[in-house]
Design brief:
- The protein has 2 domains: about 5-50 and about 65-80 and about 220-285 and about 420-475, FAD/NAD(P)-binding domain; about 85-215 and about 290-410, Polyamine Oxidase, Chain A, domain 2.
- The protein is of the alpha/beta class.
- The strands form 4 sheets. The protein has a 7-stranded mixed β-sheet with strand order 7-6-12-13-14-11-15, with helices on both faces.
- It contains 17 helices and 17 strands.
- The longest helix is centred in the middle third of the chain and has 14 residues, at about 200-210.
Length: about 475
C-alpha cells in the first residue's frame, strides 16, 4: 500500500504521456507520484526479447517521427535524456509490383526523380510544413481551440488537412505511384481514405519524413523510457509499479490527479464521482480499429526486390492507392482484408544491437476490426513476400500479437486501438470531447493526459506536457511553466 502522504500531483499510468506530465510537474518544482499497474514503466514504449534470446524487439511503438523537433522532447536537456537517435538513409519506402519503389528521406529534393511529373505538386504541397516543422508542431500539437503563434501556417495546414486522401489525390497527383505514396501516408489515420481529415494525417506524416527522417533509438524503444524514468527520479519524483488503482479515493491526497488512461478506465476509477455531463462525454468516446502485429527473428536481411527498400527504416506495403483504400475501408466495415495494408520496419539494418551478428529483426502490423482475435500472420507475410520473394524462408521465429492480445498486455489499447480513439473528424480535432478546456473534467483536480486527449496518438509526450502545463497555470498560477 502507498504511504498516507500528500503530493502536488499524482499521475496514474506511466506511459510516455504520463511520464511527460510527471516531468513537466517535477521540473516546475512540484512533488510528484506516478503509479503504474504493470511491472515496468513505459506503456507502449518498451522493448523485449519476444522471439529468441538476443533478438531485441520493440513491443509496441518502434519508429518515432513525432519525438524529434517537438516541444516536449526537444525541451529536455541532453545530459538528462541521453538517447541516441538513428536516422536511416530513407525514412520510408513504398514498393510496387514492377520492382521499383518510391522513397522519402530528410532531404526534400530526393524524391524528384521518382515522382516524375508529380514532383512539383508534391514539393509545393509538403514543403511549407516540412521546412517549418518545429514552428508547425508548436501549434498543431495543441488543442485546436487556442491562439496559434503562426496563424497563417496553422490555418493553411488545417484547411488542407480537413480534406480526404482520395479527394487530395484526385486534385493533386496524376501518376498512380504518387497517389499510392500519399494513400500510404494517409492510412496512418486508420480511417477509410475517403473520410474527411485523412489528408491532414498524410500531410503530417509526409512532412515529418523530411523534417525528422523517422528516427529510432539505438538499443530499442525501451531506452526512451529508461531515460525519462532516470531523469524523473533525479528530480525526486516517486514511481510505484504493480499498483492497480480501482478507486481514486485509495490514492494519497494530491492537488491534481492526472490520468494517462483511456476514457473507459477513467470512468471506472472515478466511480461515478464525475458530474453527469462529463460521464456522458467519456461514455460517448469511440475507439477505432485495432492492429495485428508480428515480430520476426530472421536469418538475414529482408530480400527486397527494389534496392531502395534496403535503405528505409519503414516500409508501406500495399501496392496501389486503390488497394490501400479497399483494405482500410474493409477494416471499418468489420472485415479482415485478404490483402491488408502493412506497415513494416527493419531496425536491425541500422542498429546491429538488435540482433546477433548476421541475424536480423523486423516487425509489421496491419489494421483489423476493433477487438479482433484473428491472427493475420499469413496475410501480412504474404504482403512482405510479394515485394521480397524468399522472405518467409528467413523466419527463425515469430511472435504474433492480435488486437485482443494487445489489450491484454496493455489495457489502454482498447480492442487493440493504437490510436487511443477513432480518428473521426470530431475526435481528430476534439478529444475526448468538444471543449475549450479539454484536459480538465469533473472539477479542477482531475485531468486526462493520455493520447485520448489533444493532440492524440503518437509518441510526442504532448498530451501529458500540455495537461501538466494547463494544471500548473490553473492551480498554481504559473504563467509560463
Amino acid at each position: 500500500m502507498l504511504r498516507p502522504a500528500s503530493y502536488d500531483a499524482i499521475i496514474v499510468g506511466a506511459g510516455p504521456n504520463g511520464l511527460a506530465a510527471a516531468l513537466t510537474m517535477a521540473r516546475a518544482g512540484r512533488s510528484v507520484l506516478v503509479v503504474e499497474a504493470a511491472d515496468a514503466p513505459g506503456g507502449c514504449v518498451r522493448s523485449d526479447e519476444g522471439t529468441l534470446p538476443g533478438f531485441l524487439h520493440d513491443t509496441y511503438a518502434a519508429v518515432f517521427p513525432l519525438a524529434a523537433g517537438t516541444p516536449f522532447f526537444s525541451g529536455l536537456p541532453s545530459h538528462a535524456f541521453p538517447v541516441e537517435w538513428i536516422t536511416p538513409p530513407a525514412a520510408l519506402a513504398h514498393p510496387f509490383d514492377d520492382g521499383t519503389c518510391l522513397t522519402l528521406s530528410r532531404f526534400l529534393e530526393t524524391p524528384a526523380a521518382d515522382l516524375g511529373e508529380d514532383t512539383r505538386a508534391y514539393h509545393d504541397y509538403i514543403e511549407p510544413f516540412a521546412r517549418r516543422w518545429s514552428t508547425l508542431t508548436r501549434d498543431i500539437l495543441k488543442p485546436l481551440i487556442h491562439m496559434p503563434r503562426h496563424p497563417g501556417l496553422f490555418l493553411s495546414f488545417v484547411l488542407k488537412g480537413v480534406r480526404s486522401v482520395e479527394q487530395t489525390c484526385r486534385n493533386l497527383f496524376r501518376t498512380e505511384k504518387a497517389q499510392a505514396l500519399f494513400a500510404g501516408l494517409g492510412a496512418h489515420s486508420i480511417r477509410p481514405l475517403n473520410a474527411p481529415g485523412t489528408a491532414g494525417v498524410a500531410m503530417l506524416m509526409g512532412a515529418s519524413t523530411h523534417a525528422t527522417g523517422w528516427p529510432m533509438p539505438r538499443g530499442g524503444a525501451g531506452r526512451i523510457t529508461d531515460a525519462l524514468v532516470t531523469y524523473l527520479q533525479s528530480l525526486h519524483a516517486e514511481i510505484r509499479l504493480m499498483y492497480e488503482v480501482h478507486d481514486f479515493r485509495s490514492l494519497p491526497y494530491s492537488r491534481v490527479l492526472l490520468f494517462d488512461l483511456a476514457p473507459g478506465q477513467i470512468l471506472e476509477i472515478t466511480r461515478g464521482r464525475l458530474p453527469l455531463r462529463h460521464r456522458l462525454q467519456l461514455r460517448r468516446y469511440r475507439h477505432g480499429p485495432g492492429v495485428c502485429k508480428i515480430d520476426w527473428a530472421l536469418d538475414g536481411p529482408i530480400p527486397w526486390t527494389a534496392p531502395g527498400c534496403r535503405e528505409a527504416g519503414t516500409l508501406h506495403l500495399g501496392g496501389t492507392a486503390r488497394e490501400i483504400a479497399l483494405a482500410e475501408r474493409q477494416v471499418w466495415q468489420g472485415v479482415h482484408p485478404e490483402r491488408p495494408f502493412v506497415i513494416c520496419s527493419q531496425p536491425s539494418l541500422f542498429d546491429p544491437s538488435r540482433a546477433p551478428q548476421g541475424r536480423h529483426t523486423a516487425w509489421a502490423y496491419c489494421h483489423v476490426p476493433n477487438g479482433s482475435y484473428q491472427n493475420m500472420a499469413p496475410q501480412i507475410e504474404q504482403q512482405v513476400e510479394r515485394f521480397a520473394p524468399g522472405f518467409t524462408k528467413l523466419i527463425l521465429s515469430r511472435r504474433v500479437l492480435t488486437a485482443r492480445s494487445l489489450q491484454r498486455h496493455n489495457q489502454s489499447l482498447v480492442g487493440g486501438d493504437i490510436a487511443a480513439g477513432a480518428n473521426s473528424l470530431r475526435q481528430l480535432f476534439f478529444r475526448p470531447d468538444i471543449s475549450w478546456k479539454p484536459y480538465a473534467f469533473g472539477w479542477n483536480r482531475f485531468r486526462i493526459c493520455s493520447a485520448s486527449s489533444p493532440p492524440g496518438a503518437g509518441v510526442h509526450g504532448m498530451c501529458g506536457y500540455n495537461a501538466a502545463r494547463d494544471a500548473l497555470q490553473d492551480i498554481w498560477r504559473i504563467k509560463n511553466p
